């Protein structure tokens, strides 16, 4: 039996070995990644540049955009380079580091989405007390707690995984270093790892998901029993629908991937689920959630008009 320290690197098999399909996927995911960086970067820039936007939901949206940018960066660049190379290798340290940051950022986003659902509940059901309940510290504390919880959750998996013994094949049937594909290469017992996935990671994801469902249960009840106008109901529900869309796209694949964790799970299904919540969701977040905020869209237009005006005036000045 070989100790895992003797393994110097792993080989990522990626999404497919079909060369023509790799070229298509490279172009597609490169486009997704660029849109993710531009969309989330623009929103983050607008929020940082316009202090009046610093209200609770905008603060959380800025955090979400920041997390999404780094979350995609953990996996997508490595995946893209894999489409261009015959063999995509990653060092043992690099693999464990990628695993850590993937779960750190993913766990943080899971908690943050739950906090944002509670924020919507307070804004809709207790509008007069909203500024009192969702004060400065009520925003900063859960955001910090989300990152701290995500960091220690990821650290737990990294430490436990680093103690495993790897032997035989070092070929990971995935496009990045995740826990379940790594466990298929282990010679020693993986009981503790799968217990952590089921009894720590699963509940860790379910808890904010439950908070989200409970928040929207109260919101829907409030709309039907307290709001008489169908027009007002639809207006509020359309705002909530964008957040629910993000929650569904993110939570459902995560829960299916980590709640029912076993060594016999299909690698193809794991990769499809991973693509949804690590690549697709960060691209969709600015479009179906953040950009629905009128104040953000208005600020983006003002900044663009100001930039265009400055460029035009500078051009006229040079010609004159």
Quick rundown:
This protein has 320 residues and is mainly alpha-helical.
Structural class: mainly alpha
Please mark out the parts with pLDDT under 50 across 5 or more consecutive residues, or reply none. 1-5
Give the H and E element order. Answer: EHHEHHHEHHHHH
Report the portion of residues in β strands. under 5%
> Radius of gyration, Cα only, in angstroms?
22 Å
What share of residues is helical?
over 70%
Outline the biggest β-sheet.
3 strands, mixed
- The end-to-end span amounts to 78 Å
Average pLDDT for all residues: 82
**In which order are the strands of the major sheet placed?**
2-1-3
Characterize the overall form: globular
How many β strands by DSSP? 3
Quickly count the helices. Answer: 10
Question: What would you say this structure looks like, in words?
Answer:
- With 320 residues, this protein is mainly alpha-helical.
- Strands 2-1-3 form a three-stranded mixed β-sheet.
- Residues 1-5 have low confidence and may be disordered.
- Helices cover 76% and strands 3% of the residues.
- The longest helix is centred in the middle third of the chain and has 36 residues, at 191-226.
- The protein contains ten helices and three strands; from the N terminus they run βααβαααβααααα.
Question: What order do the helices and strands come in, and which of them pair?
Answer:
Blueprint lengths: L8 E4 L6 H31 L6 H29 L3 E4 H34 L4 H4 L2 H27 L8 E2 L6 H5 L7 H36 L3 H29 L8 H22 L5 H26 L1
Helix pairs in contact: 1-2, 1-9, 1-10, 2-3, 2-9, 3-5, 3-7, 3-8, 5-7, 7-8, 8-9
């Amino acid at each position: 039996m070989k100790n895992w320290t003797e393994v110097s690197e792993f080989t990522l098999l990626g999404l497919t070995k079909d060369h023509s399909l790799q070229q298509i996927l490279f172009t597609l995911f490169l486009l997704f990644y660029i849109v993710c960086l531009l969309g989330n970067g623009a929103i983050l820039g607008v929020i940082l540049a316009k202090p009046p936007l610093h209200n609770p939901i905008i603060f959380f949206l800025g955090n979400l955009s920041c997390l999404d940018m780094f979350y995609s960066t953990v996996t997508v660049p490595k995946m893209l380079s894999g489409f261009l190379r015959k063999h995509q290798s990653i060092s043992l340290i690099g693999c464990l580091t990628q695993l850590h940051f993937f779960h750190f950022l993913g766990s943080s986003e899971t908690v943050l989405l739950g906090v944002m659902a509670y924020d919507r509940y307070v804004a809709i059901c207790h509008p007069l007390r909203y500024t009192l309940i969702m004060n400065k510290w009520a925003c900063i504390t859960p955001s910090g707690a989300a990152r701290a919880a995500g960091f220690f959750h990821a650290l737990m998996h990294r430490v436990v995984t680093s103690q495993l013994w790897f032997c035989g094949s070092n070929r990971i049937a995935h496009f990045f270093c995740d826990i379940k594909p790594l466990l298929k290469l282990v010679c020693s017992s993986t009981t503790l790892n799968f217990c952590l996935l089921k009894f720590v990671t699963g509940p860790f994801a379910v808890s904010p998901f439950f908070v989200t469902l409970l928040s929207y249960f109260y919101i829907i009840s409030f709309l039907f029993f307290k709001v008489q106008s169908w027009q007002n109901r639809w207006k509020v529900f359309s705002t909530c629908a964008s957040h629910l869309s993000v929650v569904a796209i993110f939570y459902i694949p995560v829960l299916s991937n980590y709640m029912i964790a076993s060594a016999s799970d299909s690698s193809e299904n794991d990769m499809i689920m991973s693509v949804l919540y690590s690549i697709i969701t960060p691209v969709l977040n600015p479009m179906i959630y953040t950009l629905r905020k009128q104040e953000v869209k208005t600020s983006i237009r003002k900044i663009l008009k100001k930039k265009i005006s400055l460029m035009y005036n500078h051009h006229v000045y040079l010609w004159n």
